[in-house]
Amino acid sequence: MTRAMPINIPSNLPAKEVLEKEKIFVMDESRAYSQDIRPLNIAIFNIMPKKEEAETQHLRLLSNSPLQLNITLLHPSTHLSKTTDGKHLNAFYKTFEEVKDRNFDGMIITGAPIEHLDFCEVNYWNELSEMLDWTKTHVTSTLHVCWGAQAGLKHHYNIGKFKLEEKCFGVFEHQILEQNCDLLRGFDDRFFVPHSRHTNTRREDIESEEELTLLSYSEEAGVCLVQSKDKKQVFLTGHPEYETHSLADEYNRDITNGSPIDIPKNYFINDQPSQLPLHLWRAHANLLYMNWLNYYVYQATPYQW
């Protein structure tokens, strides 16, 4: 029996095989064309080093929806990736220059392990700045993740980041500050999100900006989820898209490289790296992406751009 899938991605994209093995509902191009509905066009600006891994993680969360999605993967033209095969980029990715005349219903800007750099030191900062301006007129709602959230807050509202004394690394409990927010509809009063970063955003900077609303906060990890009043910009400082083993992989990588790293907090059973971690954020991660797609993209975007 053929499995129908609501995400329209190239048939030979490696993520497709991974998601199919997980019984995740996605769709290839031939099946998509047979459905007489208007799909949502979603762009993912992927600036993570391991692009295949990151694209799979975000597609997994986008897939749990009855909506049909056309996915466009983007990478910066002003940065040469050293960790992703050029053939993969040439086959599946476009640049901003190639799509800037289009409109998108939604966009995701991923994180990147570059928070130690000043924004102006990032070699694709000018390209990203142009894209962030473009999202205000060409994208219904943009979801910024981790460093992408810090970059968006800096560009749109001149809210900076500050260096932490020790890395924010682990799985942290968060509280909801806005009970009637559509983005958090169906959430429990407390929920968990993985974080992995060396910098943070000050709560007082968010709360002093009248165009922003702080939606959730963690006593340990700080600011987590912020949105603009018009819902066109959403800023998420954590990594709900992470898989069960993602923080363990980062920890083991740093241990192997001899880099100083603490055991991720609230992650391994009994704080023992030899033990399997518990995946405590899966349900809320799926709900967050579905709420964003439904309330901020699908119900807000025009039928015809």
Automatic annotation (TrEMBL):
Catalytic residue list: 146, 239, 241
Subcellular localization(s) per the UniProt record: Cytoplasm
UniProt site positions, description: Important for acyl-CoA specificity: 115
Site (Important for substrate specificity): 196
Domain of life of the native organism: Bacteria
Keyword match Metal-binding: no
Family, per entry: Belongs to the MetA family.
Protein name: Homoserine O-acetyltransferase
Native source species: Aureibacillus halotolerans
